[in-house]
Each structure stands twice: as C-alpha cells, then as structure tokens.
Amino acid sequence: MTNYCFLLRHPSRYSCIRVNTLKSSTDAVMHKLMDLVCENGLSDGINGVEIVEQNGGDQPHEQSSLVQKCPYAGLENVLFVQGSGPHVLNYNSQPDQSVKEVIVSRKCAESVLRGAQVFVPGVLACSSHVEKGDKVAVSVAVEQPVKDGGWAVGITRGTVLQGLQSDVHYEERKGLYIGQGTAAMSRSGIFRVLHGIAVEMTERVYKLPSFNDVLEGEIFLQNLPSVVAARVLDPQPGERILDMCAAPGGKTTAIGILMRDKGEVVALDRSHNKVMDILKLASEMDLNCIKAYKLDALKSVRKTEEATIVEMVNSHCEAIKTLAEDSGPCHVTVDGTATNVNEESSTTTVVQFVDDKNPEPKRYVSKAELRKNLRRMKNGPGRNNCFGGRVEKSKGFFPNSFDRVLLDAPCSALGLRPRLFAGEETLESLKTHAKYQRRMFDQAVKLVRPGGVIVYST
Ligand SMILES: C[S@@+](CC[C@H](N)C(=O)[O-])C[C@H]1O[C@@H](n2cnc3c(N)ncnc32)[C@H](O)[C@@H]1O
C-alpha cells in the first residue's frame, strides 16, 4: 500500500514553471531552461523517464527530455523540468575524520529539496571549525513530540555539533540528510550575518534545478493547481478582479498576464511585508495592472452608506485635481473649500464644494483625507507605488465592485511537497479553520457583481 505521508516527504519529480508570456515565449524559455539544466549537469542520474516533447515544437534537443511542455489545452505557458532522486551519497569520504555538518530548519530543507541553496537564516546548528570552502553534510531538524503534547525542534540556533555518535543530535538526524555542499562562509560568519548563502549544495539526495535569480520576470515557479486556479477564474482584459489572499502574488500575476495587463487586479494581503512581495513580483514581471493593498480580507467589504460620502469626496478631489492641474498646487480647508495657490504668481483661487441636494457646504472630508489627497496631487502617485518600504492600506471595497474574485484562503498546505512535518490537526482546529474560510467566502460573495465569478481555491 502506498504510504501517503511517505510520499509527501519527497519532493515532486518535476518543477512546474509558468512563463510570463508578456515578456517571453514558452519556446524561448524552454530553450533557455534546457541550457541551464545542461550547465548544471542535472541530466545525471535520471533514469527510466519516458520523454515526449508535446505540442510539436522543435526536434527534441539532447536535453529536451528534461524540460517538457504541459500537454493540456489552456496551459501552453507551463513547462515541467524533470528532477531525479533519491540518490545515495557518501558523506564520509575520509573515514578517519569526523564529517563536518550543518543542520537546517525544516522550511529550509524543504526548499533545498526543491533545488534551493542553504541560506543563512535556515541554519540551526553547525560543527565547530567549519571554514569557508569546507565540505559539509546537510541534514534537517524535524519537529519532535514534546512532553506537554506539542511539537518542537529542540535545537537552539548556533548549537555546536560534535559529529560524534555521542552527540545529542546524532540520532535525530539519522536518515534526515538531504545532501552535502561547500560552506560559503565560516561557522562564525553563518551565525553573525543576517542573509546570504551559507552552503552551496554540490550533491543532493534529490536533484531539481535551482531557479533562484534565473530568468527573473520571465518565469515563475508555481504548482500546477495554482496555475489552473487562475485559468479557471478566466479573467478577461479590461475587467476588475479581486485576489483576496494574494501574497506572494503567484496567482495575482498569473491573472494579470491572462488579462494581458489590461484592467485592474486588486491584490490583498494582511501582512505588510507580503504586500511588498506582491509589488516586487508585479514589478519584476512588468505588470502595471496590479494594485496591492494591506487589508484583512475579513474586513474587505465596506458599508454601503459610506458609498455616498466617498462618491462626494471623490468628486471633490476630482475638482481639486482639475484645479491643481490647471493652476498648480492648492490647499484645502475642512469646511469644503479648496484654495488654489499658485506659488510663482501668488494668485489664489477659492473653490467651494456644494452638494446638489443640499446647498450648504458639508464637513464630509476629514483633514487627514484631504492632506493625503493633496500630497498625492503634489508628489505624484506617492512612495506607495514604488518600493520604498511603504504599502498602501485599503479601507475595503463596496459590494458588487468586482467582475471576478479569487479566494485563495489560507489552508493546511497539505498539498505542498515536500512536507517534512505535518502537525496533527484536531477536529476543533479544523472547525475553526472552516469557519474562518466561510467568513472570507461570505465577503467574496458580497464583493462580486451579480453574474460575476468566484473561484475558491484551497
Ligand atoms: C496560501 S497563501 C496565498 C498564495 C497566493 N494566492 C499565491 O498564489 O501566491 C495565503 C496568504 O493569505 C494571507 N492571509 C491569511 N489570512 C488573511 C486575511 N485574513 N486577510 C488577508 N490575507 C490573509 C497570508 O498572509 C498568505 O500570504
């Protein structure tokens, strides 16, 4: 019988790559990837894989067996890069010497198994006397059950490994080696600096090419179901789409590309740094249709009564903008008057906003709102639209604001491979999770226009 948990611990046998067809073509990327795979010697050790180049294309290249086009209609922008493993490695080439070692966190190991190098933040422990250039065996620390019923890794960052059987961590890492590599810095460097490559992997138990810094903006490493989710949403150029839990922006950018960068994709995430990630990815992919905001998706629906007020503020701002464009910078007072100051000529114009149904000037516009709008007018779109570290917060959206909504609610991530550890879910935690997802779905239902589409991906 197939052991499902055992399979989850192994990486997928291929990497799935989505091509940014606004910047390149699938064929061009395919050839670049073949060269990369060739350079990295990834063809070694891949046995028994039946290869067919799908959808026609060029005659099979020597390395074409390792890079294949996705055979399914509608997914012509998807390529698969074949991996291999498990390979048996010899960690102890000099039997009289103890092996120098590095233990990495589970998340780091999962990335390494998918082709990444070992980066500094992922290192938990290291043998003493490791110097730059030393060969080190890399193993993973997986959560272990603890007395109070929870799970813990049990290794403090910076631990010195003795490399002996008497070492307290010896038993723990038996069978959990993921390869070996060359230390890119000394032990002290690894625990002193904040980022950078700690170990360059040279031999891996599972070989998959690393796509770090490769064809940036032209490709995105994405699991096939995620590519399919964006495809099923079927976004059309010119539409307004909402992606409710969007970071790092894999599906958001897939949607933007399907829309050929025409229209608007509103991407939400509750984490500031993750919104930055979305903006960075959109910029790398040259997508202008993506607007990313920090917002808790559970609060993404704005009350309809606010709509009238906002409409009024918007029309006021529009009037101010016209004024500013015509005559230069202006100041606005809270009683609804805008004073246009032409700094060069020192002329002043005063505009009074009047509600058609109520001729009395209203104090609808808050000082902060007006100051913000004025700053935007004077300084352009503002720092939020570049990567200065600030992200725009959203107050939410009015009902029926979007043609289509993608809800990629946070999930158990059980479908992600490799998964070296899966804590046990209790019935109670599953129920809480389901309730959370349901509340998000209710927001999605309100935000989509009548006849619009919601794709709920989990
Ligand atoms: C599964 S990931 C989304 C992956 C993304 N759709 C993609 O394809 O790249 C879930 C994301 O939802 C975000 N998230 C979780 N709860 C949220 C909430 N209440 N509001 C907004 N974002 C939330 C997390 O910060 C995380 O970035």
UniProtKB/TrEMBL annotation:
One of its GO terms (molecular function) is RNA methyltransferase activity. Belongs to the class I-like SAM-binding methyltransferase superfamily. RsmB/NOP family. PROSITE patterns: NOL1_NOP2_SUN, PUA, SAM_MT_RSMB_NOP. Residues 152-458 form the SAM-dependent MTase RsmB/NOP-type domain. CDD domains: PUA_NSun6-like. InterPro entries: MeTrfase_RsmB-F_NOP2_cat, MeTrfase_RsmB-F_NOP2_dom, PUA, PUA-like_sf, PUA_sf, RCMT, RsmB/NOL1/NOP2-like_CS, SAM-dependent_MTases_sf. Keywords: Methyltransferase, RNA-binding, S-adenosyl-L-methionine, Transferase. The keyword S-adenosyl-L-methionine applies. This is Methyltransferase NSUN6 isoform X3. The keyword Hydrolase does not apply. S-adenosyl-L-methionine binds at residues 245-251, 269, 296, 408. Pfam families: Methyltr_RsmB-F (PF01189), PUA (PF01472). It comes from Panicum miliaceum. It comes from the Eukaryota. GO terms for biological process: RNA methylation.
